[in-house]
Amino acid sequence: MDAQEFREFGKEVIDLLADYVENIRDRDVLPSVDPGYLQKMLPEEPPEEPEHWKEIIKDFNDAIMPGITHWHSPQFHAFYPTGNSYASIVGNILSDGLAVVGFSWMASPACTELEVITMNWLGKLLGLPEEFLNCSSGPGGGVIQGSASEATLVGLLVAKDKTIRMHQKDNPDLDGDMFKPKLVAYTSDQCNSSVEKAGLLGSMKMRLLKADSDGRLRGDTLAKAMEEDRAQGLIPCYVVANLGTTGTCAFDPLDELGPVCSEANVWLHVDAAYAGAAFMCPEYRHLMKDIEYADSIVVNAHKWMPVNFDCSAMWVKNGYDIMRAFDVQRIYLDDMKNNMKIPDYRHWQMPLGRRFRSLKLWTVMRIYGAEGLRKHIRTQISLALHFAKLVRADDRFLVEPEPCMGLVCFRLKDGDMITKQLLDNLTKKKKVFMVAGSFRTRYVIRFVICSRLTTENDVNYSWSKIKEEADIIYADKV
Ligand code: PLP
């Protein structure tokens, strides 16, 4: 493929994607294919001869598109949002076009420096305390990880390293490895699966402590668990607090968990993967009260900001902790010798290689502006409240718990079975996509405003489909 063909192919693809977005409402949100459908459509062997790009576009439309779940359909209300915007796609194209690998400053100075700048911008936009920012006088700073899962695992590995060093200092005659099996991590039973997985991957026992009836991990529960473990000779090491749980968007009280961690000298990581973006709006910042206690924080720009996957923003209060844990030297990897202001990001993450991800964060923040980003959050929250109002007006339904951010959990008052039937039937019809959750042991349906394209009319449409299905179920019962 030469430059001329690249221009033609690229322009055709931009048109294709713009048409896709503009006409997305014409499609069912869920695909109508069976498992293995694509294997039947595509050849078993790669092509021997070069093919023309037009053939690829044709196969994309004929074979790939039918197997797509349309995450940006206004009727996609499942999981949590994944970011998408034209500004971000263009940022990604620029990054792919340059195709640099920015593991050190030297490997591409702009790649490192734009990440430092955009992470400072974003940190300020979210109202994070200055100590987490690279532009403060301290050793804090931000880094873009591929996912919140990675950020949580990075936090765990750094906490492990730090705790072992601490214990070795107190016991210089002992081998640091003997402390490893004694380390314990804590989070709530409402945590995202990725938090539990971090324990598995990092070989650390992860205790899922019982949250209160509102889904919040309380300080006394954490303190008691640590006390029990210490009594058995174990060593509390890492705590993951959740600001916006995946199930019901509950917020753990940092003003309770923070002092417990601080007193025990335990690393506190804050998982605000979804809801953290709301801190751009000052009216939601009370939900991160006492964030100063945290050692690390993750907010997925690729969730509730219009930034395409992957762009997981992580800040640490002390970059030296992370560099000490992950610093492996080689003669061919010349670096900045622990210069905190211009970090060599390979010491801040698990892989060596890294993409120029800050470009899309930069294009998004500039094209939207802070006001545009805040408007995105506020619009989505007001659409969720609109949906809750529609549900509450129908006395067969119950909204529970109180809607939070862009999430509304609801159920039929007649019980779990019928609520599940409603969700199953809706999923089969493919017009509206939601997934289940649970609240106080009851089965609930989670309705999340996900697509940036969703309007009040779209929410009304989704609700009309839900109501229609409930009518059918109740009609069949009589
Ligand atoms: N934490 C929370 C609260 C989430 O809701 C999710 C995903 O929905 C994650 C972590 C995992 O995010 P990622 O896919 O970036 O690892």
From TrEMBL:
SUPFAM superfamilies reported in the protein's UniProt record: PLP-dependent transferases
Cofactor(s) this protein cannot do without: pyridoxal 5'-phosphate
Keywords, alphabetical: Lyase, Pyridoxal phosphate
Biological process per Gene Ontology, one example term: catecholamine metabolic process
Domain of life, per lineage: Eukaryota
One Pfam assignment: Pyridoxal_deC
GO cellular component terms attached to this protein's record: cytoplasm
InterPro entries reported in the protein's UniProt record: Aromatic_deC, PyrdxlP-dep_de-COase, PyrdxlP-dep_Trfase, PyrdxlP-dep_Trfase_major, PyrdxlP-dep_Trfase_small, Pyridoxal-P_BS
Gene Ontology molecular function: any one: aromatic-L-amino-acid decarboxylase activity
N6-(pyridoxal phosphate)lysine modified-residue sites: 303
Assigned protein family: Belongs to the group II decarboxylase family.
PANTHER family xrefs: 3,4-DIHYDROXYPHENYLACETALDEHYDE SYNTHASE (PTHR11999:SF60), GROUP II PYRIDOXAL-5-PHOSPHATE DECARBOXYLASE (PTHR11999)
Protein name (record): Aromatic-L-amino-acid decarboxylase
Organism (species): Manduca sexta
